[in-house]
Every structure is written in C-alpha cells, then in structure tokens.
Amino acid sequence: MEANDDEDRTAYAQDEADAGGFGLEDDSGAVIAAVGRQIRLWREAAGMRPGELGVAIGYSENLVYKVESGTRIPKPEFLDRADEVLGAGGKISAMQKDVAEARYPKKVRDLARLEADAVEIGSYTQQTLHALLQTPEYARALFGTRRPLYSEDVIERAVAARLSRQEIMQKGRTTPIFSFIQDEVSLHRPLGGREVHRRQLEHLLEVGKLRNVELQVLPTALEDHAGLMGGFRVFKLSNGDSVGYTEVQHLRQVVSDAKEVQVLEMIYGSLRAQALAPPESLATIEKVLGET
Fold first, then answer.
1. Blockwise average pLDDT, block size 10, the chain, 292 residues
2. Under 8 Å CB-to-CB from 266, ≥6 apart: which residues?
3. What stretches of the chain show up as alpha helix (H) in DSSP?
4. What is the Cα–Cα distance from 118 to 113, expressed in whole angstroms?
5. Of 43, 47, 64, 160, which one's alpha carbon is 20 to 30 angstroms from that of 189?
6. Nearest alpha-carbon partner for 271 in 213, 232, 236
7. Sheet containing 118-125: which strands, arranged edge to edge?
8. Cα–chain-centroid distance for residue 111?
9. Angstrom distance (rounded) from CA 162 to CA 131
10. 70, 37 Cβ separation under 8 angstroms
C-alpha cells in the first residue's frame, strides 16, 4: 500500500475537528499525546525515520509526524500496522481501546459512562428527540442547525459520537430499562426534510416496541405541564445511587446532590402521569407519520 496524503486526509477527516466543541480536550489530548510518544519511541528503537515507517505501514511521513506529535488521532489500522512493522508484540495495538475512548469529547464520554452504568434511565426531552432515539440523518440535520456553525468534519464526528452511545439500545438487551418522555412538538419538527422526518418517526415506532423501552408522548394541549423548566435525565446506577443530568443550550451538568436528584425524580413522576400511556403514544406517532 502506497503512502498517500489524499487517502490520509480522507481516512482521518473526522479527526480534523479542532473547533466547535469536538476537538481534543481535557484528558483526551493527553491520551493521544502519550500514544504518539510511544509510537515515536518504538520507531526510534527500531532505527527507522518517520518517512521509512510511513512507507512501511502505508501512510505519509507527514501523517506519521502528526500522530507522533499528538495532533492526529491514529486509526486502528495505523496502530496495527505500526505494531507489526516495529515488532511491538501487541503493545501498540493494545492502545486502540484508549484511543477509541479519547476520540470523543469528555462531556460525551462522561454521559456514555453514566448510560452504560445505569440500570434504569428516565429522560424528558422537549424541542428535539432524545439522542438515543435519533437516526444518523436526524442527528446530522440537528447538528447542522447549531450556532456558531459546525464544520462538516465536526458534524460527522458529533454524529459518530452520538451513534456510539446508541450501542446500549441494541435489540435483545434487557438492561438498562429506558423511559423516554417526548414533548409532542418534537414529533412535528421536520429536521432534515420530509424523508428524514418520516424515517425518524418510523424509527421511533421500532424503538418503542423494544421490551426494555417505554416511550411516552406529552401532549402539547396540556394546561398543566410539570416540565416547562427544561429537559433532564435521571439515572439509577448499578450501585443503587441516582444522579441527574441537565442540559441547557451548550451547558451540561451532572446533578449528584441527593435532594436535587429527588426533585428531578418528583418532576419526572409527574411528567409520566401527565403523558400519554405507551400504546397511546405509539398511536400518536403513527398518526403524525401518516400526516407527514
């Protein structure tokens, strides 16, 4: 395989996100820098120059420099080829897990860890659909509305991060138990256009039939609405603790104070009582789909 700058740029496009909230941040940068440093030490121990390593593994000298300096996130294939060529005995390849975790911003990784550790998740969402319910096309359209504007590369990385969180929604899993409450208005917002909107509604109907998912719609016509202060989530963790999570615009906060979490749980209980039952909610979604 020949080293090719164009191929490098294509393969690494999603890692070019150095702005808009999806660049390397917090401990992510330190992890990638440490990985690059280890690759450089193995290369030097093998008596190879960056260009020689690039030719041997099929990447450009420029890309090797960037990976070693911690400014570019290496792909699994890069790590595997470098491990083989440098005779690292699996030590470089073993860093793939750390690199994968560092690929997404800390705020995304922290939320994913909460979701992974939860036995039950309750979520109330207002203007848009919950991230775990979104199709790739819907998520892409949603990120495209952000201000200040995201670049295309940043949008693709954001979508990838969102989809990675949806692995816990795989069919056949029994935990965690999900409870989603969606404001009815979110069903009518045609993000991405008619076809994207229709596919998103179809996806909601599919997810709503999973055994561990309870999907409820909160009617717009309600006079008494317990959730007007904004959307939030409540996580019941495997150790018995409960934590909340709030998000307003770009500001996110994990709520761990027991009294504050209790307030969120009380509000969520009221919202579940005010929302349509799951069968009625699915019927509402089917009605909106039929009108779309």
1. 44 36 56 93 96 95 94 91 96 88 63 86 96 97 93 89 86 85 97 97 96 96 92 93 86 87 96 97 98 94
2. none
3. 5-11, 27-45, 50-57, 61-68, 76-86, 96-102, 106-117, 136-143, 152-165, 185-188, 194-207, 258-274, 278-291
4. 9
5. 160
6. 232
7. 213-218, 177-183, 118-125, 232-237, 242-248, 251-255
8. 8
9. 7
10. yes
Tell me the two tokens of residue 152. Answer: 């295309």
Core vs surface per residue 223-252: b (16+ CB within 10 A) or e:
eeebbeeebbbbbbeeeeebbbbbbeeeee
Q: For residue 122, what is the enclosing H or E element?
A: strand 118-125
Tell me the C-alpha distance between 15 and 75, whole Å.
Answer: 10
Are 281 and 217 in contact by the 8 Å Cβ rule? The answer is: yes
User: Residue 182's closest CA among 291, 281, 289?
Assistant: 281
Cα 113 to chain centroid distance, Å, stands at 11
Cα angle value 98/99/104 (rounded, 5°): 105
d(CA 201, CA 292): 9
| Interatomic CA distance for residues 292 and 289, integer angstroms | 5
Q: What would the two tokens of residue 60 be?
A: 């450009």
| CA angle, 162 then 166 then 167, to 5° | 130
At 116 the three-state DSSP class reads helix
Residue 159: alpha-carbon gap to chain centroid: 7
